[in-house]
Amino acid sequence: MNETLRFPAEWETQSGVLIAWPNADTDWAERLAEVEETYIALVSAITRFQPVLICVADDDIETYAEMRLRSNRVEMDRVRFVTAAYDDTWLRDSGPITLKRADGSFQLLDFRFTGWGGKFEASLDDQLVGVLDQAQVFNNAQVRSIPFALEGGAIDTDGAGTLLTTWNCLHERHPDRDRASLSADMAAWMQQDRVLWLDHGYLEGDDTDAHIDTLARFASVDSIVYQNCDDPQDSHYAELQAMGAELAALRTSDGQPYRLFPLPWAEPVLDEGRRLAASYANFLIINGAVLMPAYGDVADNAARDVLAQAFPDREIVQVPCRSLIWQNGSLHCITMQLPAGLLKN
Fold first, then answer.
1. Is Transcription a UniProt keyword of this protein (predicted)?
2. Which domains does the chain have, with CATH numbers?
3. Beta strand segments in 171-299, E
4. Whether pTM exceeds 0.90
5. What is the pLDDT at residue 3?
6. What separation in angstroms does the CA of 61 have from each of 29, 52, 84, 237, 240?
C-alpha cells in the first residue's frame, strides 16, 4: 500500500455525505411521494452529525427540496445543494471513490458506471464525478478517470490495505478477466495490499449482481458485519450460510480470524409478487453514528442491537427504507461518504 495515498475506511472522519434528490425524471417517479419521505428522514439523520451535499437536477427541484426539508425542521445550516444532471440517485455506484494523500489532498477515482452492466441508462450518471469536480465543491482534489466498470457498492475497505468484494459482480462486469488480474488492478488503483473475494451470497431483488454492501461490511480492521439467513425454508438459506462459512475462513492481515456479527433476517417483502432485497448490511457509517435501514419488520430492532455491538461507540439510527428496496437498493446505495477535508465549507 502506498503510504502517501490511502483509501480511507467509511468509519473515518467525514466532511459530509453526498446524495441526489429523487424527482419525476428518475425511476422513483411512480412512488415519488413515498421515497421523498425516506430522503427527508435520511437528511434529517445525517445533519444531526455532519453536513450533506445534495445533487439536484435544476433550480426548481432545489427550491422544492429545500421547502420539504425546512418544513420537516431539518438543520439547513448543514445542507448544501449542487446542480448536476443524473439518471438516478444511486450515488454509491456513480459517485467518487476517494483516496487521500498524506498531505491532505485527494484523488477522486472516476470508474466507468454502466448501469450495472448495461441494465439501465447511465450516461448522465457516468459523468457525475466530472460534473461535481467542475462545480468546485471539493477541496484540493484531482479526478483520475479509469476506463473500467466498477461501482462503489461492489467494494469495501478496512482503511488499512484490505479490500472486500464478490466474484459474482466483478466477473459479471468483466467476464474475460481472471481473479488474479482483477485483484492486481483493483489493488493498484485503490492502494490496497490484498483483495478478499466472496464466492457466495446473493439477494433476490438485487440487480447489482451481488454487491458486497448488501452482504458483508467491515466494522473495523478485525471485524465484519454480514447479512445472515437462519430460516432453512428460505431460498437464501444455503447461499448465505455458505457465505458465512467463507467469512469465518477469512483472516485479517496479521493472520487472525475476523470477529463476525451476523445480522438477523427480515421477513420476505413482496411487491406484486416480486421479492425485494431487504438487507440490513446496507447501513451507512457517519461521524458518531451508524444509519441503518429499517423495513417495518420485527427484525429491525434486533439488527439495531447487532450493529450496536459491532459499533459500540456510535449511535445507531434507524431510517425507514422500505420505499428504497422497491427499486432494488437501500440506504448505503443512495449515499457516498466524503472524507474529512474533501467537501468545501
1. no
2. 5-339 (3.75.10.10)
3. 194-198, 216-220, 223-227, 259-263, 270-271, 274-275, 284-286, 289-294
4. yes
5. 57
6. 14, 16, 11, 43, 41
